[in-house]
Amino acid sequence: MHPHLACFNPACRARFDINQVIYNCPNCGGLLEAQYDFRGAEPAAWKKTWRERRMDNSPLSQSGVWRYRELFPFLEDTMQVTTLREGNTPILNAPLAAQYGGLTRIAFKHQGFNPTGSFKDNGMTAGAAQARSLGMKRVACVSTGNTSASMAAYASAGGLAPLIFIPHGNISYGKLAQALEYGAKTFQVEANFDQILALVRVLAERLGIYLLNSINPFRIEGQKSIVIEMMDQRNWHVPDWIVLPGGNLGNVSAFGKGLREMKQVGLIDKLPRLAVVQAEGSSPFYEYMTEGVGKTGFRAQTNPETLATAIKIGDPVSWPKAQFEIETTNGIVERATEQEIADAKAVIGRCGIGCEPASAASLAGIRKLTAAGVIDRDADVVAVLTGNVLKDPDYIFKYHTGQLRAPNDTPINATFGNKPIMAPNDADKLAELIG
Question: Against a cut of 0.85, is the pTM above it?
Answer without folding.
Answer: yes
